[in-house]
Amino acid sequence: MAKKDTLPTISLTEMCNGSKAKMQYYGPNSLNEDGTYMPFSEQMAIISHYLHNEGTPYGKTYQKKALGLMEDIYKARCSSEADKAAEFNEAQQYNLFNELYDIPFRPKSKTKFTFIDLFAGIGGFRIAMQNLGGKCVFSSEWDAQAQRTYLLNYGEVPFGDITKEETKSFIPDNFDILCAGFPCQAFSLAGKRKGFEETRGTLFFDVAEIIRRKRPKAFFLENVKGLMIHDKGKTFETILNVLRNDLDYYVPDPEIVNAMNFGVPQHRERVYIVGFRKDLGVEEFAYPTPTDKTKTFADIKEEQEVSPKYYLSTQYLQTLIAHKERHASKGNGFGYEIIEDNEVANAIVVGGMGRERNLVRDDRLTDFTPVTNIKGEINRQGIRRMTPREWARLQGFPDAFVIGVADASAYKQFGNSVAVPAIQATAEKIVNKLF
Q: Which of 157, 200, 259, 338 could be a cystine partner for 45, CB 3.0 to 4.6 Å?
């Protein structure tokens, strides 16, 4: 048997395809039921979930498949026939995947409840729930770049498409709280009952189906505030009918919660929906009141001079000015906005004018040499985009949060995320009702 320091290992960089090569291990345990090979990301979802839940009842859900996959991977990486023939043991298991534990956001040593993280994104729900003493026992996120960010911060690869039965099959029993920032897809309201069956074909149906099967103590759902008025309110009526009547949960009237009331300088309104299993006797619930409305952009601004790549070119700035003037002449308020240091940012969003509606003024740039291909020169007014780290702070992510993707992906991930402090303030109210 090889010495411990010569045993094979897998790094987080490799898991994240840092080498720009798609990894795949083939072995007897990596076959799906239909005979196709399981993608490496799915293998790592099973393995990482097992290792982070090993020794608990939740780990048993992943154990059999995970142990087989780990042995396949270990033997594929062994350089000698003797090592390949040796029995795969716990020491080899830890050595092979030890970087899964060297991460910035591990759950507290003593946890008081469990939760699952659906449509997990980059783990905004997870940070909030872990801060309150929760342990995540299942996560799901289909976007590969978001999976990468999730892995780098929590040492866990989320499972993929939650609409697939094979993904649902790995959700453990007896977890306490279901968390989901589910996307809003179009609902079909052609029928009259407006109940469970009429949500089929939407991602909300998958959330509802998991609640029906697993019966968690509570759930916490988040969505854009426009969900409440979609299809003249019929969509929201359907959702509440499913949760209250079909699933038989106590669901207090949902509320629109603004992140800027909870310590981040971002005007971000989202609808929160919470529910409690009726046998628990919860009959009232109050959403949190504002805790801190004092923060401005200056509180989250980069401390040091930022790269010239974030500064607008003279030509692009002039294009934005002309664009805004055209709309203003028609009586429209659409266009770029500059957030001053003493102001609160607009909601950060993906696409459209998402970044341009949150430009800032920063005159600290000392080298105006472009580092990207731009038309014209770097503007001398100090107008720049916010950096990904500033977007992270606008969403309440700690500076220890690892941004291990390109800027374009980072903006998308933070723009799609939940605001951690607002989620945590609401989750604390839920936890206090249950434990």
A: 157
The C-alpha atoms of residue 190 and residue 167 are separated, in whole angstroms, by 30
What is the rounded distance in angstroms from the CA atom of residue 397 to the CA atom of residue 418?
A: 10
Tokens coding 333: 């308020």
**3-class DSSP assignment, residue 80:** coil
Whether this model's pTM surpasses 0.90: yes
- To the query of whether residue 184 is one of the catalytic residues in this protein, the response is yes
- Distance in angstroms (rounded) separating the CA atoms of residues 309 and 99: 32
Give residue-wise pLDDT tens across range 303-325.
Answer: 999 999 999 999 999 999 999 99
Fill in the DSSP letter of residue 46.
H
Going from the C-alpha of 329 to that of each of 59, 156, 321, 322, 335, the distances in angstroms are: 62, 52, 12, 11, 12
In b/e form, how buried is each residue of 298-332, taking b as 16+ CB within 10 angstroms?
eebbbeeebebebbbbbebbeebeeebeeeeeeee
Residues near 370 by beta carbon (within 8 Å), at least 6 away in sequence: 308, 309, 313, 377, 378
Measured at the alpha carbon of residue 417, what is the angle toward residues 162 and 263, in degrees to the nearest 5?
A: 145
Please state, in angstroms and as integers, the Cα–Cα distance from residue 23 to each residue in 39, 110, 136, 143, 344, following that order: 9, 35, 26, 17, 43
First vs last C-alpha separation in the chain: 48
**For the domain 113-289+417-434, what is the CATH code?**
3.40.50.150
- Of these residues, 16, 136, 179, 184, which one is catalytic? 184
DSSP assignment string, 390-414: HHHHHTT--TTS---S-HHHHHHHH
Ranges of each domain in the chain: 4-100, 113-289+417-434, 303-386
